[in-house]
C-alpha cells in the first residue's frame, strides 16, 4: 500500500528540470535495487544505484572500502555520488540504506519524489540473508538491523513523499504501485 505526503510537483519553480523520477530509500533488504530495476523497466528509464556506482568508481566493494578506508571515507564517496546523481540522473535512483543519515544528502532530497520502501526484519532477512557484503550488519545481523532501523526510521519517514509496504510482495507488484502513484502526482 502506498501512502503519500507532500508530494512535489514537477513544475520548474520547484527545482531543476533534470531530476530523478523517483528516489528509493529504505533499510538493507527493503528492495531498493530490485524494485528500482522493476520500476525503471516499467517507466522506460534507467536505474542508477549509488552503491553500485561507488563500487564501480572505486573498483572495489563497499565492504572493502569500509575495511580499507573506513566508514567516514565511504560516506564521503556516497555523499558525492548522491549529489551528482540527483543533479544529473533522470531515471530511478536507488540510495544506500545509510545515505540519508548524512545531513547534506537529506537536505539535497528536498523537492524530490522520495519513496520509502518499508520492510520488516523477516522479509529483510529472506532478501539479503544478512551476508558479509553488508558491512554494518556483520556482527549479530538481526540485532544490528533492528538497531539501524530504530536509528534510521525517523529520517526515512521525514524524507519520504511516498511510503510503500513491501512485506511479502514481488518487486513487480511494488513497482507497479509506485508507478501508479507517480502517475497520480503528474
TrEMBL record:
Any GO molecular function: ATP binding
Binding annotation for Mg(2+): 33
Locations listed in the record: Cytoplasm
UniProt KW keywords: Amino-acid biosynthesis, Aromatic amino acid biosynthesis, ATP-binding, Cytoplasm, Kinase, Magnesium, Metal-binding, Nucleotide-binding, Transferase
Needed co-factor(s): Mg(2+)
Pathway in which this enzyme or protein is active: Metabolic intermediate biosynthesis; chorismate biosynthesis; chorismate from D-erythrose 4-phosphate and phosphoenolpyruvate: step 5/7
Catalytic activity annotation: shikimate + ATP = 3-phosphoshikimate + ADP + H(+)
PROSITE patterns: SHIKIMATE_KINASE
One term under GO cellular component: cytosol
Positions with a binding annotation for ATP: 29-34, 134, 169
Enzyme Commission identifier(s): 2.7.1.71
Cofactor note: Binds 1 Mg(2+) ion per subunit.
GO BP terms, alphabetized: amino acid biosynthetic process; aromatic amino acid family biosynthetic process; chorismate biosynthetic process
SUPFAM superfamilies: P-loop containing nucleoside triphosphate hydrolases (SSF52540)
Matches recorded under InterPro entries: P-loop_NTPase, Shikimate/glucono_kinase, Shikimate_kinase/TSH1, Shikimate_kinase_CS
Any Pfam family hit: SKI
Role, per record: Catalyzes the specific phosphorylation of the 3-hydroxyl group of shikimic acid using ATP as a cosubstrate.
Subunit-structure text: Monomer.
Family from the record: Belongs to the shikimate kinase family.
Name listed for the protein in its UniProt record: Shikimate kinase
Provenance organism: Oryzihumus leptocrescens
